[in-house]
Amino acid sequence: MSSELRKKIEIVLSALQNEEHEYCSFEELNRRVVFDEGLSREEKFKEVVDTVCKYTIDTKSKNWIAKLYGGGSEMSFVAEMIIAHFNQNCHTYRSSPFFTFAEEQIIKKIIGYVGYEEGASGIFLPGGSFCTYIAMICARFKKYPASKRTGLNHPIQVITSVNSHYSIDKGAIIMGMGTDNVIKIDFDTTTPEEFEEIVVRNNVFMINSTMGTTSEGIMESVDKFSKVMKKYNIWHHIDACVSGIALFSTKYRYLTSSFKHANSITIDCHKCLNLNQQCSVLLVKEGDLLSDCSRVTAPYLFHKDSEYDVANRSFQCGRRADGFKLWFCDQLDDLDAQATLIYDRNARFKKIIADDPRFENVEKDSMTHCCFKLVSAQEGENHEIMNALLKEGIYIEYHRDYFKAVAVNNDIDEDSFKSIIERIFAVHERLSQK
Predict the structure, then answer these.
(1) Which pLDDT score is estimated for 326?
(2) Residue 5: Cβ within 10 Å count
């Protein structure tokens, strides 16, 4: 590392200590982000870095409870530095031996948590949605193996819940199925008999359930459909992007007891496990399907002795070392404590809401989300409250008539949460007086 680069890193690290951040509209940024052409190269570097840090939301803040991710742990930040420094492509073992080793080791460990038998495999992919797409392709290949060569000349369907993530629809578009072939049902009200009728009328190749829905954090179950799924050989994918991190918690791992029966599982470790973006893993019970459905001949890249070339089971050629990031944190952080924290803290936040007569809990069964609403809120008021809080540097989301708080950062405690709900009520009162 050159001395010049070290100086630049010191400037960046200094700028990152700035705790003053300003949220601006796109139009405001367009007006404000203008640099003096008369600056020297060194001066402009500092000015650009300072500007970026000023107008970028600090997801490490105690006031950041808006999304399903946080500011990232220190160890995952260090891992990102190592990844960026070596800048390797994790497609072949020859190009990234240690990163490949680390990915294989951590996948093996997670498979052990799940309870899959020998033959299971996995791969790190760029985001939970991408993992879902590949799971859908594996499911189609399992039922229609010729589709890899000839495609399909008839429609096929996937079943998912009305609360599922939109990646199922996106996957249907990517696969050429079309969104009309995504059948959305209410898992709670649909009976096994009604489910079988849907299956009989269609060419259903997969069902998707969610462990931790995006808006409510609900954990769905398809146990009552299991006999029908087995009868018609329907692939079961679990979208555990949000709550799958329970695997890492000895206290809450029991929540994942059904994982071993699923054909595939997606987990986002950059969400509630608080690793830096992105760190998504797809696990497949029949591991050979990953390579069987995607492998093509490429003698310029893959050689006969390339047993650990991960790209042989990937639709990507260019791959970041996201698996190394989780392996690194598993070696040096307490992932059990982090995975447990998100569940324990959410229970405490729900109690705070339950004890405050100004608010009420909405989704009491959510394990990761604290969903609550103002008892005296007016229709459409939540959007105004959210925008007002943005200007105060408080970041919280709403869905329909309730707010949802997901506290991933380690230093978010009861006091900081109480402070946020006080600000919500204060803004509500101000709007009510207009």
Answers:
(1) 98
(2) 9
pLDDT at 301: 67
Largest CA distance in the chain: 74
What pLDDT score does 357 carry?
A: 96
> Three-state SS string across 345-360, please?
HHHHHHHHHHCCCCEE
My answer on whether omega of the bond before 278 falls inside 30° of 0, hence cis, is yes
Whole-angstrom distance, CA of residue 173 vs CA of residue 202: 18
* Integer CA distances (angstroms), 177 to 121, 201, 206, 225, in order: 26, 17, 13, 24
Residue 207 and residue 234 in contact, taking contact as beta carbons nearer than 8 Å? yes
Q: How many residues does the chain have?
A: 434
Q: pLDDT-derived band of residue 162, with 50, 70 and 90 as boundaries?
A: very high
Pairing status of strand 204-210 against strand 182-185: unpaired
pLDDT tens for 72-82 read 999 999 999 99
Local structure of residue 378 (DSSP, 8 states):
P
Tell me if 143 sits within 8 A of 190, measured CB to CB: no
